[in-house]
Amino acid sequence: DLPIRKKIRLEEWILAENRPLSWTYQGMLMLCPDIFDLLYDSKTGGHFGINKTIGKIKGKFYWPKLRDDVKKWCAQCDLCSARKGPTSRKIKAPLASYVAGSPMERVAVDVLGPLPVSENGNKYILIAMDYFTKWPEVYALPNQEAETVAKVLVNEFVSRFGTPVELHSDQGRNFESRNIRPELRG
Under the GO molecular function aspect, what terms does this record hold (predicted)? Predict the structure, then answer.
């Protein structure tokens, strides 16, 4: 009954606060924020993704570039951004695998915990693994302070396997502290 390109159909719709609105092509574009508030931002809106939001809007409304407007609206939503995190990640440097050429060339270390306290009073685990051999060593720790980590690394790991050429960590405070460097260099 309505040829799409020849006529613009006017209808009355009831939107927020029971106010009747007359819709025209130009008016529709101006009322997009009201439509988004009702079908996306309201308590019953749900903050759904792009496709579901388009489906909800198309059930009652349509305008040119609807998809583009919904994408832009969803991308600018503070609640969705906080919940979903950034939409694109900028990689600062390309990731590359490290190939060790010999044992003890590079050793990875990390601390796991806190865990339930053991009978000996330990609640952390120090993990050291050689990149070349993939040999893991695990040590129980009472705390994760730099001094404790350094003592265990030197007394348990280095005394048995020798000093690694390179020590790789996640740059946690227990590995970047000034206390750990003299212990491992000494």
Answer: nucleic acid binding
